[in-house]
What does this fold into?
Amino acid sequence: NGDPVPWELCATMNNHWCYCNYDHDYKSPQLIIRKLVECVSKGGNMILNVGPDARGNIPKESLAILEEIGEWMKLNGDSIYGCGKSELPKPEWGRYTQKDDVIYAHVYETPLGALPLTGVGPKELDKVYYLANGSEMKRGEAWNTALSAMKTAKVNLMLPKFETETSLDLT
It folds into this structure.
């Protein structure tokens, strides 16, 4: 009937559900973070399996990956915790998550020129700023920033940080 249902992704850090001494094909922290963002942006949850060895020790590769994910979450956790699917369509450059009137734009690929904020017109946008450091960005209009499709009056757009600090041109 089209109603959303609870769902979750169950993922492993490598290719096994338990400890495997010869499996060193670990997923990158960036891939795991992107999958987490994807799940949240689609209204889902993510479970990440960590397989300790027979003595209960977590492999050093897993610890390093979890540490990087933890550092990202310290800066960008607000874009995940308590968030869900945005009413905006999925952008070409990444994903949106949303909590109340705050939309988080997870930019995976910085486009050439302006960042198209499809569905967010200038009258609906209150502020644009980086989540990690709070610095505000000015937004201008270009041919690829769309007319409004939103139902809410004003939104705040926040940009979580990914692998490298990006410089976005919103004009």
